Amino acid sequence: MARKVNSFWNKNKSWIIPVGIVVVLFLFLLMWFVGSYNGLISTRENVYTQWANVETQYQRRADLIPNLVETVSAFATQERTVFEEVTTARASVGKIQLSAEDLSDPVKVKAFADAQAQLGGALTKLLAVAENYPQLKSGENFLALQSQLEGTENRIAVSRRDYNEAVKVLNIRVQRIPTVIIANMFGFDKATPFEADEGAETVPVVAFPEITD
Q: pLDDT tens, 28-44?
């Protein structure tokens, strides 16, 4: 049996070795291809997950606004302009919905960021109103809402940072050789970081009327 095997090998080794090398190279390339593709999928899904966290925290903030406006308006009935600005900004935010595919569109991401920055500025004005109303500032309901809002703003900052980190990883992978080949083959696009324009959340100074007894 061994003699037959040796004889077969001697007669056919001229093509067995090249075929073996080709098979090994094919398996290596297949493993690399599958690993790279799955890696891109995981990286992109992480971007989607982190974006969902961003949206969740912004929605949490939006959900707090009606109660906050109602609480402040009970003391500051004449600050209608501020209340209307907050309400309008909240409505504008609600009209902008981004899908996972939209994250590769800088224009749509910027529109979302600008709307959120506008709402953030309006909220800052609303909270500034409380400075003129000591009873409101010390009210249990207002303090609870303010605490929830501050906690939400912190979570927004964290979720935005995590999203931007995930975007950075994805954008590097879809541009780096050799994974850029697979990215181009299967349509893996770069995602857009979430960054507000410089000064976009700077709230102008607002002079509120003095309260007289």
A: 999 999 999 999 999 99
